[in-house]
Backbone:
């Protein structure tokens, strides 16, 4: 089981559902998982309980069915994972990561889009 910046694949999968759907019950998250990767309901419940202990999710206990929500925004996790990847795999070089991601034959339309994004980033104060 891989870990991404302290998150297991299973935890990341459940957080992704919460980021897409917003606060949800265990049943709602369970049913949102793709059937081919669906674990047992009690496994999903146990994962949420462990994630709550770790501070990865919050839990609203007001109703009978507890409602879980991601404790932090998706973008914050993505940025943290990318920073960790750049540091660990590319020696801190964002350039090396980007060149590696583009591969030997990047599509012209992708390059144009990247150039446009870079231009917009340079314009920001």
Residues:
């Amino acid at each position: 089981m891989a870990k991404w910046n302290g998150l297991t694949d299973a935890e990341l999968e459940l957080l992704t559902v919460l980021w897409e759907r917003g606060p949800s019950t265990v049943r709602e998250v369970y049913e949102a998982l793709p059937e081919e990767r669906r674990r047992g309901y009690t496994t999903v419940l146990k994962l949420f309980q462990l994630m709550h202990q770790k501070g990865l999710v919050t839990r609203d206990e007001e109703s009978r069915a507890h409602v879980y929500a991601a404790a932090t925004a998706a973008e914050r996790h993505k940025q943290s994972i990318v920073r960790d990847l750049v540091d660990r795999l590319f020696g801190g070089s964002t350039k090396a990561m980007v060149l590696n991601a583009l591969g030997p034959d990047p599509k012209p339309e992708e390059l144009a889009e990247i150039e446009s994004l870079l231009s917009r980033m340079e314009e920001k104060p």
